[in-house]
Amino acid sequence: MQEATFFQGLPAGPSLPRGAWHRYIIFMSETRTAELLPILIAPHKTLKTRARPVTAGDASLIRDLVPRMFATMYKAPGIGLAAPQIDSLLRLAVVDVSPDDQKAPLVLINPDIIARSEEMATREEGCLSLPNQYADVTRPARIKLRYEDLDGSRREMEADDLLATCIQHEIDHLDGILFVDHLSTLKRNMLMRRLAKEQRQNSGG
């Protein structure tokens, strides 16, 4: 399959040099043009559905979604958001684990983990689709990732610490997996019951 260049040659989109999308994302996510998106709450069926690969035909949709996903993630606040969480079954995720005053947006299109360390790390995780629910999850401490960026370039990167955890968490979303699926049945059921109870209380039910 030909490598997708998601934004090249699209007259409706902004004309930017390669590499300028970083600044564009930050600008757009901070303006009113980046409308916030509703985040699905578990156990919505979309959250348990495997997302499909992004193709060149999705360029306009991706261009619209990415700034809005970042705006939604920053507002929540969160450090990662996957397309299924906003009811879009595309293999797309956005991540930013940097301090609030040093934004470093990372767009992952069709991400694939190609190597994992044998060393494991345990970190407390939460999720915007399971608000106020947290649990320790054990994952590989380091990963190597292959993905496509907004310029349509195929890239590889290595990640460890919080970034590695966040990327693995978001790729799980693209495969219909929630962080609670890594827990024991007892712990998972307890968190899901607590979430359901909180949602009923918040809705006045």
TrEMBL record:
Its cofactor is Fe(2+). One of its GO terms (biological process) is translation. Its EC number is 3.5.1.88. One of its GO terms (molecular function) is peptide deformylase activity. It holds the Pfam family Pep_deformylase. Keywords: Hydrolase, Iron, Metal-binding, Protein biosynthesis. InterPro entries: Peptide_deformylase, Peptide_deformylase_sf. It catalyses: N-terminal N-formyl-L-methionyl-[peptide] + H2O = N-terminal L-methionyl-[peptide] + formate. The active site is at residue 170. Fe cation binds at residues 127, 169, 173. Removes the formyl group from the N-terminal Met of newly synthesized proteins. Requires at least a dipeptide for an efficient rate of reaction. N-terminal L-methionine is a prerequisite for activity but the enzyme has broad specificity at other positions. HAMAP family: Pep_deformylase (MF_00163). Belongs to the polypeptide deformylase family. This is Peptide deformylase. It comes from Granulibacter bethesdensis (strain ATCC BAA-1260 / CGDNIH1). The lineage of its organism: Bacteria, Pseudomonadati, Pseudomonadota, Alphaproteobacteria, Acetobacterales.
